[in-house]
Amino acid sequence: MSALLRLEGVSRRFGGLAALDSVSLELGRGEILGLIGPNGAGKTTLVNVVTGVHTATSGRVTFEGQDITRLPPHRVARLGLARTWQIVQPFPRMTVAENVAAGALFAGGAADVASALAAARESLGFVNLADLADAPAATLTLARRKRLELARALAMKPRLIMLDEVNAGLNTAEIDEALALIRRIAAEGITIVIIEHLMKVVLGVSTRIAVLHHGRLIADGAPQEVVRDKEVVAAYLGRRYAERGAA
Amino acid sequence: MSGLRDWALLVLGVAVLAALPMVADNYTLRLGTVFCMYAALALSWNVIGGFAGYPSFATAAFFGLGAYTCAILQSAGWPMLPALAAGGALAGLFAAAVGGAILHLRGHYFAIASLALAEVLRELATKLEWLTGGGMGLNLPVPAMELHAQAAFFLHLMLGVAALAGAATLLLRGSRLGFALRCIQQNEDAAGMLGVDTRRAKTLAFAISAIFPGLAGGAYASWTHYIEPPDVFDVLLSVKPLVMVLLGGLGTVFGPVVGAGLLLLFEEAVWRSFLTLHAAVLGVIIVVLVLFLPNGLMDATRRLLGRRGRGAA
Amino acid sequence: MLYLQVAANGLVLGGLYACIAVGFSLVWGVLNVINILHGSFIVLGSYLALFAYQVLGLHPFLAILPVAAALYAVGHATQGLLVNRVIAAPVLMTLTLTFGLDLMLNNTMIVAFTADYRRLNLETPLGVLFLGDVVLPGDRVAAMALALLLTGGLWLLLRGTRLGRAVVAVRMDRDAAALMGVNVPRINAVTFGLGAAMAGAAGVLLALIFPVSPLNSGLFLGKAFTVCVLGGLGSVPGALVGGIALGLIESFGALWLGPEWAITISFMVLIAVLALRPDGLLGRRGYA
User: Would you call B290 an interface residue with chain C, using a CB distance cutoff of 8 Å?
Assistant: First the structure.
């Protein structure tokens, strides 16, 4: 089976700094890939390069066999690749339903505004926000705004969703809710990349884990193997801790 | 449906203004013509400035371009209406072409680039004497009609331009493009990620916001029979639409029209008594508006009357 | 030799342009406000110099400091009383506000002083300077030297004083500066005042070279815009580089295309530079 998303030697430099350093990664259909790494490891840059916000300095990104390395964000979105943001980005002066309808209209194939609004209600039902459909987006709590972004991404009818720190700032109960939601999205047959800080969360939901450190991919494999990887432990906790653990 | 109600309002307004020559004198017709011109300019600015949120100061560029195109073609023997249409089309094409170059700019940078457009065109109109008559200006053929008929004709012409701008706004509001512009206005980066082709949407909006000022410029030139660069590329032509939209409420459909009426009232009531302080009084209006009524006079009135505003529709 | 003369003229012009732009650039960079009033502040400075010379017999070079002080007061009050109230509003609002204030000030000047062009003719001009084959009027060179001196003075003020560091801190990060105890609204007012003072000083110097009229304010504002865009925003060296670049572009443009094209050229340069720099010159897309 061909990979859904493939990165081949992808690098991205900002000035002299390599935010991504020749990263190669394959993602199969139906996977839930946990993308982890310390702050500044290049996780968000990877999402930005895949979704067309930044263009790779070198290397190639393909989605369903199509080269998307140089496509602008809206073209990538229309191919079926959705994302959420680390810092939520709703349209503040639109209603919740209108926010989600935007995804349905411009990437989800809705024929007109009316059918996009209908599709939006469906996505809102999926994330349990249907009763707030007519509220202005700016009035939602953070946890609900994160669900709004999920609904908006779902309305795009994506085949791949990249979730950037979807749990940041949430409390334990809210995180459990969000995880249940992620599993339900996966059950719909949507492939997921989840960027996450909380190790417990990643281990609980991912089928595979990839670790970035200083822009390089230092580990990629089954969750239980990756967290025992010496280099990964070193990246997170420092070299000395890793050596002591091994002794 | 508020959509149907708005169309009915538009038709009603057009009908009332169209009937004006039957009852009104030439002075009132002149006011009506200026009102229609202001409304067309304000509605057009609202497309790029209100819907898309790009602070454009290019209205004078489009107005002047339309005026000169129409005037030059009429001097070359074209009939008025085709010359007028050519002016509107050229303004739209010009905006689309220039838009590709400056619409990636945000905030102040876009404002300045758009302001500079009118300055460049004004300088060109002054320099290219063989084409535009330079600083001497350009005379247009005077239609062979008696005065009242002429006043009525130009009222109807300008009303036609305003009605087109109003219809375009109504069509835009419910459309895919209108939705895209609202997304861009609120968060352009997020809009791109959701599949909005932001560059195309902004360029279209800029072109739409140019066509009607182009037409209005042509109608103005035909109406006054004489144009010169400082007149039709006047920076106040870029500022007044913005003031009218602020008066009526940003991003609403008929706010700009209400604002056009209010500004005209101010002009007639206040400026006739203070002719030399014309610009200063406009300045005072702007300062008061920005400091005390940032959501527009209409919104303030609504709140004063204790009714809940419906918000930006 | 012609090229040397043209280059020298461009440099003299450029020094004055830097002085015109540096205050505008400071206000834009620190407050994120486009001060449309800047052009009228310059013209006001020119009139004050004109009257100081004609009525009091005060030489323009001596009038610089009092005129700058007067405009500082005007600028400080404008920001403190008016602009600060909408400083957090969208770009459109502050831009529109200063536009409205400019209409008021400019119109008042037209009524008070008429739109006629007036000249400030010194009774004892400084004569002509010969540098090899290059000939330069002494007043112009002195004006340029003073313009550069003032620009350098502003730079020293921003670098070397506590007040200046506070202005720079607000430019870097307004919230962090507030947390560290900087009185941000006051620094806003000081910054706007400094911008106005520089405009006034530039106006005094320009009165020696150009005829004075309120109708010039738009022209000066356009120069300030262009210099900022050319040289980059909110830094004194940027204004200097941009000013000299514009002076040279205009001088050589006038040589090759004819002097009547100078204004058109500078606006074309403005649009071209804006169009070719993706994401504007601030280009804040870098951080993810």
Answer: yes
